[in-house]
Design brief:
The chain is of the alpha/beta class. Helix content is 55%, strand content 11%. 42% of the residues are buried.
Length: 592
């Protein structure tokens, strides 16, 4: 039981014994004491003052005196300021905590709870390379999965490859018309980038055709439908769904180029999946479920042959689930995918990590699945996150304004090399070690920058802020960890326990209080699906360690007991920094 839970429990006990009040645990508010007041933890008295008809001072004194007499191994002092009871925890509690945890490399992680959670992330289209927005998606989904795992859940990481549809056909028709047989091998261009180039080219040529038709007097909306390139792409989609051999062969060839490119990027950023689903498979089941929905009157068919669902009674709108030419739309495959996921893994929760521009889509998906009585419907949860924007505005693939993931990674690795060189701290590193260090710092800076922001918020990407030894960055935390490793290499730590009678200085106690909080941070991060709590925690822990180390020597401690205590604190700090940053997918170097 953590310290806050112990204080809550003791407070509930005194309220019951002294006032015959059975307080619900959630009503006992316990916070860390503000720096300007004396104490470690504060009980908020206001919720009980009116009910008990006691003044805050009297109530605070009653609870404080009770805790002093009944919990001497927990509380050593108290003071009441207005409606707040400030408690000082005995030093021996913190030393006992340290002795029990200092060598626990997985401190904070919970045992298995028997529940299973699926997290779907990345979900790229196979007509373009991964971009900056995909990076936030990948880092967020991967981290959420690891945080769930640390909280005792079995996790399943999945990805849906959006490998079919009109967008894929645009790349295919463009390559067929303009590539002259170009391949990744013949051009030296990474496969996903090559295919993406032809997707951009499609939109360039398509715009030209639309403009030409408009010049002849055709309305723009009609020109967009009649442009030869668009009609060719639409026909290719029809031929693909009919299984026309030459179209399928081209599709397989171009997708293979993209997958090879994706795999290279995934390996570099550390994204992995337990299962990859393919829209080219899930849409088939989706179309069958559309027919089932028609039979059950969940869907209805319009005169042109298209199939829809009317959700106006649910406060939404009408939604198409199949086009008039019989081809599937995006939500068709998502319906099939929900069934595939449930049948294969039967998870307690299925989390979709998808940008907030798809909020409406997932409201519709959940409603459709409920109306079709799909067993997994109630377990669907959309983890909606804000888009990543550039100083110049939103990224648009068709206009070629997207920042490719591979390019931004290279930029951050170069930035890490430059800034590390400026610090003059690379002496004694071999070229191979430096290359590895720059990769760790560059990727760490990128991941931390994208994960330190609450997922619900949109964010502006500024690579220059990602690598900074003195800022709110992974680099700052990585340097603190490397410093601890340097200390531990120089000073041997024994397996003996620190005596409970050793007094704690303020900076030692502050660091121990922060370390004790770590399991609660992991729990909150899991409950709110928010890795930024872990990022903030790791940064503040690194700051607290730096303050502690600046204020108290380890090698020249006042006594052997003090030296041992501080080495234990350093070791536990290193374990927690490593564990917390690993949940964000960030490596910590042994030296910098």
């Amino acid at each position: 039981m953590d310290i806050i839970s112990q204080i809550r429990s003791a407070t509930r006990q005194v309220l019951q014994e002294k006032f015959q009040v059975m307080a619900v645990e959630e009503t006992v508010l316990v916070n860390e004491t503000k720096p300007e007041f004396e104490g470690d933890y504060t009980i908020v008295l206001f919720p009980f003052v009116k009910t008990l008809k006691q003044s805050p001072e009297t109530l605070g004194k009653t609870i404080g005196e009770y805790l002093l007499s009944q919990q001497p191994d927990l509380i050593s002092d108290y003071n009441t300021i207005k409606g707040f009871l400030n408690l000082t925890v005995v030093d021996s509690f913190w030393i006992s905590f340290l002795n029990s945890k200092y060598n626990d490399t997985s401190y904070g992680a919970l045992p298995k709870n028997g529940k299973k959670v699926m997290v779907e992330y990345s979900s790229p289209n196979t007509n373009k390379p991964l971009h900056l927005g995909h990076l936030r998606n990948n880092f967020l989904g991967w981290s959420i999965s690891e945080i769930y795992k640390a909280n005792g859940y079995e996790t399943v990481k999945t990805c849906i490859a959006n490998d079919r549809g009109i967008h894929i056909c645009k790349s295919m028709i463009s390559w067929k018309l303009y590539a002259s047989g170009a391949t990744p091998e013949s051009t030296g261009i990474k496969g996903d980038h090559l295919v993406g180039d032809y997707y951009v080219l499609f939109n360039v040529e398509y715009k030209k055709q639309v403009d030409e038709l408009v010049k002849t007097g055709m309305k723009e909306e009609e020109a967009e439908k009649q442009a030869p390139l668009m009609k060719a792409a639409q026909q290719m989609l029809i031929d693909w769904e009919k299984g026309k051999p030459d179209i399928i062969e081209l599709w397989q060839k171009m997708n293979s180029w993209v997958y090879a490119g994706f795999d290279e990027t995934y390996r570099r950023i550390g994204s992995d999946f337990d299962k990859i689903y393919y829209e080219s498979n899930t849409y088939i089941l989706g179309k069958k479920l559309v027919l089932t929905g028609l039979e059950k009157n969940v869907f209805y068919q319009k005169e042109d042959g298209s199939v829809w669902i009317d959700l106006t009674a649910d406060g939404l709108d009408e939604k198409i689930v199949q086009r008039k030419d019989g081809t599937a739309v995006y939500i068709t495959q998502d319906i099939g995918l929900a069934v595939f996921k449930f049948e294969e893994f039967n998870c307690d929760q299925s989390i979709y990590v998808v940008g907030d521009e798809q909020n409406y889509h997932f409201k519709v998906l959940k409603l459709i699945c409920e109306k079709l009585q799909i067993p997994s419907a109630e377990n669907i949860f959309h983890l909606s996150y804000g888009m990543v924007e550039l100083p110049t505005g939103r990224m648009k693939t068709r206009e070629g304004t997207v920042v490719d993931a591979d390019e931004i990674i290279e930029e951050l690795v170069r930035e890490a090399a430059i800034k590390t060189g400026e610090q003059g701290k690379t002496g004694g590193f071999s070229p191979e070690e430096l290359k590895s260090l720059y990769e760790i710092l560059g990727l760490g800076g990128l991941k931390f920058f994208l994960l330190r922001v609450d997922p619900k918020k949109r964010m502006l990407f500024n690579p220059e802020e990602s690598i900074d030894l003195h800022g709110f960055t992974a680099t700052f935390i990585q340097y603190a960890y490397a410093r601890i490793q340097s200390i531990l290499r120089k000073e041997a730590i024994s397996s003996s326990e620190t005596k409970s009678s050793v007094p704690l200085f303020a900076l030692e106690k502050k660091l121990l209080i922060n370390l004790e909080r770590y399991p609660a941070v992991l729990k909150q991060s899991c409950q709110e699906l928010n890795p930024s709590f872990v990022a903030f925690y790791a940064y503040n822990l690194a700051k607290d360690f730096n303050s502690f180390y600046a204020g108290h020597s380890i090698s020249k401690a006042e006594s052997d007991e003090k030296k041992h205590l501080r080495l234990q604190i350093a070791l536990l700090s290193s374990h927690v920094l490593k564990h917390s940053m690993a949940l964000l997918g960030i490596q910590l170097p042994q030296r910098m």
